[in-house]
Write a structure and sequence with these properties.
Blueprint: E1 5-9, E2 13-18, H1 21-32, H2 60-75, H3 90-93, H4 97-102, H5 121-149, H6 157-169, E3 176-183, E4 190-194, E5 197-201, H7 202-206, H8 208-222
Parallel strand pairs: 2-3, 3-5
Antiparallel strand pairs: 1-2, 4-5
Helix pairs in contact: 1-2, 1-5, 2-5, 6-8
Length: 223
């Protein structure tokens, strides 16, 4: 998995933004296979849109249900490196389930065997079919995201928002963590998954003013 994370923080708070490749690849499979999973939030199609075969696959209903369960598992991943783990121990800890969740894409989901999907054969067949195209597509999106995060209008933006909130509160922010996952979907929207986690469309993330308007009250709530 390729991870590109922008961290803004002090000793007391962290805001992380990431466009996880595993989530991009899962959404690619959903759209390319024409699946219609029931998930909450119900995310729009990817942008740029993908061509797909409009002829409904015989296994599409079963695979859609399997994909929804898989998506929920992927959303449980990510987050920040645990304070009690030492990064230099990564080679020794690479099989640690806690660390595997951080990096979203444990080796059991990788080709050629996709062992992690053995219990969902219909979904496994689709992932195997679309994996290489999904990998190429998602890597291109990741490069775009990294380029976006280093633009002048984006660098240190979360830190600036926290500073603005602190001035309004008249004190330093309390310790908090906020994990923001950016997705290139057809929307200018955000979805709060929990107090510490949110999904944000890339279009909203790219719009400095709209992103500040969305994020500032969340920071004020957490701080």
């Amino acid at each position: 998995m390729t991870l590109s994370m922008q961290l803004a923080g002090t000793t007391t708070w962290k805001v992380g933004t990431d466009e996880p490749q595993s989530l991009l690849m899962a959404l690619y499979v959903r759209d390319a296979a024409g699946l219609r999973p029931r998930i909450d939030p119900d995310l729009p199609p990817l942008e740029p849109a993908l061509p797909f075969d409009h002829e409904q696959l015989p296994m599409a209903g079963i695979a859609s249900d399997q994909w929804a369960d898989w998506w929920r598992q992927l959303l449980d991943g990510g987050g920040f490196w645990p304070n009690h783990k030492s990064p230099p121990d990564m080679s020794r800890l690479r099989h640690d389930p806690e660390l595997q969740r951080i990096f979203y894409w444990p080796s059991r989901y990788l080709p050629p065997d996709f062992v992690g999907l053995s219990g969902t054969p219909e979904l496994k067949a689709l992932v195997r079919r679309h994996y290489e195209a999904a990998r190429v597509w998602s890597e291109a999106r990741k490069h775009e995201f990294v380029a976006l995060t280093v633009t002048r209008q984006r660098v240190s933006l979360e830190w600036e928002i926290v500073q603005t909130v602190e001035r309004g509160l008249g004190r330093k922010a309390r310790p908090f963590e906020l994990d923001i996952r950016v997705l290139p979907v057809e929307a200018v929207q955000a979805w709060r998954l929990s107090p510490k986690r949110a999904l944000v469309s890339r279009a909203l993330f790219r719009d400095r003013a709209a992103y500040r308007e969305w994020l500032r009250p969340i920071i004020a709530e957490l701080a």
